[in-house]
Design goal:
Elements (H helix, E strand, L loop, with lengths): L1 H21 E10 L2 E2 L4 E4 L5 E3 L5 E7 L3 E5 L6 E4 L8 E2 L4 H4 L2 E4 L2 E4 L7 E5 L22 E5 L8 E5 L12 E4 L2 E2 L30 E7 L2 H4 L10 E6 L9 E11 L10 H10 L15 H5 L3 E13 L3 E13 L6 E15 L4 E15 L13 H7 L19 H6 L1 E19 L4 E20 L14 E23 L3 E26 L4 H17 L7 E4 L7 E4 L5 E5 L8 E26 L3 E12 L8 E12 L14 E7 L17
Parallel strand pairs: 1-8, 14-17
Antiparallel strand pairs: 1-2, 1-5, 3-4, 3-6, 6-7, 9-10, 11-16, 12-13, 14-15, 16-17, 18-19, 19-20, 20-21, 21-22, 22-23, 23-24, 24-25, 25-26, 26-30, 27-28, 27-30, 28-29, 30-31, 31-32, 32-33
């Protein structure tokens, strides 16, 4: 017993020593010539491992051996610092005057960093995260202060939660509004959820259709002053995504990039092998012979894998004087570290800009098409006490054979059986089209029309074979789900801009009108009782059975279904009158014994009027006022409109003579506003460095 205990201590000590060798904790302070810098980004180069400095400029980060720190802050030059085994590193950043002049995209316009009255952060392609990037949000993870970006799971294409300055709703979604090339995307999922056999599958990321390689910059609007221009949808912040345009030389430039990434589980549990498990059963007074099935299986090795993912991008860019064009094609295939999980993305995009009439008329066109194919493993948060394929791998008896046909009985999950007898596939087509026309009437007055279409067509087929073990209502008969979800988001916006300069001040005014139409339609269907256990054939039989059922019903209906205990097809109607369980009295020749389908079709409209005024006095005092009125078809005529005002004031204190030349970027900024469902009047903040 003493020898065993001593061995355990030695193994534990060796493990800890190995961990210390491979990783270390580094802390320090980030500052400039005036003192600490709160909110500075500290990132381990080549990874998404990063943090932000606290109010006193302090940071702490656990790094791999030989790591390099990348330290950045808006308005300062980015520094790279090699750790070289040090545990304490203080960094002093130098101001970058050029960065303060950088143009950032805001709602319906642009500004510079130094002239922004609202809280706006811009991240450009040069500063994006590298590595195996599956979605646009990962490009800016750890890059912006006050923005928390987390993946809901580690599977390819998983949903991502973004909180800008904390949670703003205790009941609704906290994700921000996304605007891509001037088109505000609709909220909600763009693909139906499937059935894993152990519960519903996780929600996929609706931004998976955007190729990260096509993105030029991402602007994050944080406070009430910056987001109020988007009214009711700006409560959780706004992320504006701008794609790349043709900026190459007149000869045209072809560009090709390819990447290969290797993934494996970062950590695995030290599970019992067969002999250790049997010894443990005997040690607690059990009968090891009763649970010994003769094998020695590491179930983690059965469900986990090392994968190689790929990504290729081909683009052509040309600037021909009066305009430019950029066309891209991208292909990527990302495999998850759990068997049966992968994401395939095929994208095409073209951006065209053309000037006419001595550059007074500017026409722009952005078009993209994407195909996303998802395959999900049998994992679900609703798996319950019996677990899913991942939980089963941790709980399974190591003496079970890694055979799909093995059945231990009860509620026990055989991971191999679950992998071989479930299939969950989602296919999504996404189209994004945006066209704009801008005319400059005079140097001071311009008008712009913008129209966009965002269309998503998705279907999910998820089946569980009759050969699955120990799932009530599925074993021996099989089960399947088939869902179709389509979303059409139509956008039209018209804006007029007025810019003028006076002797010691300047004025910028914007007025606009916006209209969006959101249509969501599709159906959810399910079937039980299959003559085959082949997963592909089950999916084809279910889709065919659902199509035949829908074609057999005429007129408008809500649900339609049939089963062995019904005399033909039964339907429930809502229009033109409510009819429950109307019997058609016909039978269908189907390979699925029971089929049910439920349809939906909803349309919402949003009409908006908005205005913004920016006034600058002596290049030191900045005033911004914004007002937006949103009217929604979801509400009655008496309460159809909501009003969202905001105001902001900024004082460039560094421009005052009493501050002196030693301080060059000191700014006081105060803002207040109402956006969406936020409580109170937004934010009032003091920004000493920007």
């Amino acid at each position: 017993m003493k020898i065993t205990f001593l061995k355990s201590l030695l193994v534990l000590g060796a493990f800890l020593c190995f961990g210390f060798i491979q990783a270390q904790e580094v802390s320090g302070t980030v500052s400039d010539a005036s003192g600490p810098l709160p909110g500075a980004s500290v990132l381990e180069k080549g990874t998404t491992n990063g943090t932000q400095t606290d109010f006193d400029g302090n940071y702490t980060l656990t790094l791999e051996k030989g790591a390099v720190l990348i330290v950045s802050y808006i308005g300062y030059k980015t520094q790279e610092v090699t750790v070289n085994g040090r545990t304490s590193i203080n960094i002093s950043l130098e101001e970058d005057a050029q960065a303060l002049e950088e143009v950032v995209i805001i709602g319906y316009g642009t500004t510079t960093v130094k002239d922004a009255t609202g809280s706006v952060t811009a991240v450009t392609a040069e500063d994006f995260n590298g590595g195996n990037i599956a979605s646009p949000e990962q490009l800016i993870q750890g890059k912006t202060a006050g923005v928390n970006i987390q993946e809901t799971s580690g599977e390819p294409g998983a949903g991502i939660q973004i909180n800008i300055r904390g949670s703003n709703s205790v009941r609704a979604n906290n994700n921000p509004l996304f605007v891509v090339d001037g088109v505000p995307l609709g909220s909600g999922d763009t693909s139906p959820q499937g059935e894993t056999g152990f519960g519903q599958s996780s929600v996929k990321n609706p931004l998976n259709f955007i190729n990260p390689n096509d993105i030029e910059s991402m602007s994050i609007l944080k406070d009430a002053s910056a987001t109020a221009i988007y009214g009711s949808r700006g409560a959780n912040g706004v992320v504006i995504i701008t794609t790349k345009s043709g900026k190459a030389s007149g000869k045209g430039v072809w560009d090709f990039s390819s990447s290969l990434s290797i993934s494996k589980a970062a950590n695995t549990f030290d599970l019992l092998n067969a002999s250790e498990f049997l010894d443990g059963v005997d040690a607690v007074g059990g009968d090891s012979s009763a649970v010994n099935f003769g094998a020695n299986t590491d179930w983690q090795q059965v469900v986990l894998r090392s994968t190689a993912s790929q990504n290729q991008n081909l683009s052509y860019s040309k600037n021909y004087g009066s305009g430019n064009v950029r066309a891209t094609f991208g292909y990527g295939k990302q495999f998850g570290i759990i068997e049966n999980s992968d994401l395939e993305r095929i994208t095409g995009r073209i951006n065209v800009n053309q000037r006419f009439l001595d550059d007074k008329l500017v026409v722009g066109l952005q078009m993209s098409i994407a195909r996303i194919n998802d395959s999900q493993a049998p994992i679900s948060a609703q798996a319950g006490a019996s677990g899913d394929v991942l939980g089963g791998a941790y709980a399974a008896n190591p003496t079970w054979p890694a055979s799909s046909s093995f059945n231990a009985g009860g509620l026990n999950v055989n991971p191999q059986n679950a992998l071989d007898n479930t299939q969950n596939i989602t296919n999504t087509n996404r189209y994004l089209l945006n066209g704009s026309v801008q005319y400059n009437f005079t140097p001071e007055i311009s008008a712009k029309l913008n129209a966009g279409l965002d269309k998503a067509e998705a279907s999910n087929t998820s089946v569980v074979s009759k050969n699955i073990n120990n799932i009530a209502g599925v074993t021996d008969i099989g089960r399947g789900n088939y869902g179709v979800l389509e979303r059409n988001n139509k956008t039209f916006e018209a804006t007029v801009n007025y810019n003028t300069e006076f002797e010691n001040s300047s004025l910028e005014a914007l007025v606009g009108f916006g209209y969006q139409d959101f249509q969501t339609f599709g159906f959810n269907a399910a079937g039980r009782g299959y003559s085959t256990g082949d997963l592909n054939q089950m999916g084809a039989d279910l889709r065919r059975a659902v199509t035949d059922l829908q074609n057999s019903v005429s007129g408008s209906y809500q649900q339609a279904y049939y089963a062995p205990n019904t005399n033909g097809v039964l339907i429930n109607r809502l229009l033109p009158s409510v009819i429950a369980q109307e019997e058609l009295g016909r039978s269908l020749n189907s390979a699925v014994t029971s089929v049910y389908t439920d349809s939906f079709d909803n349309t919402d409209e949003l009409q908006s009027f908005f205005t913004r005024i920016n006034y600058t006095l002596n290049d030191k005092y900045l005033f911004t006022g914004t007002m937006r009125a949103d009217g929604s078809s979801r509400f009655g005529p008496e309460n159809q409109y909501g009003y969202f005002p905001s105001g902001a004031f900024a004082w460039k204190m560094n421009e005052e003579e009493f501050v002196g030349e030693n301080v060059s970027t000191l700014k006081l900024r105060l803002s207040a506003g109402i956006t969406g469902n936020q409580d109170g009047l937004g934010y009032g903040n003091f920004v000493a460095r920007q």
